[in-house]
Amino acid sequence: MIKKAASAIVCVFLLFSTACSSSEASDGGQGDKSPVSGAVSNSGSASNTPAAEITVEEQVLLDKDGLKITLKSMADDEIWGPSLKLLVENSMEKSVGVQIRNLAINGLMMDSMFSAEVAPGKKSNEEITLVMNDLETASVTTIKDIEFNFTVFDAGSWNTIFDSETIHIKTSADETFVQTYDDSGFTAFDKDGFKVVIKKLVSEDSFWGADIYVYIENNSPKNATIQIREMSVNGYMLEPIFSSDVLSGKKAFDTITFLEQDLTDNDIKEIESLEFKFHIFNMDGWDTLLDSETITVSFN
Question: Is pTM beyond 0.90 here?
Answer without folding.
Answer: no
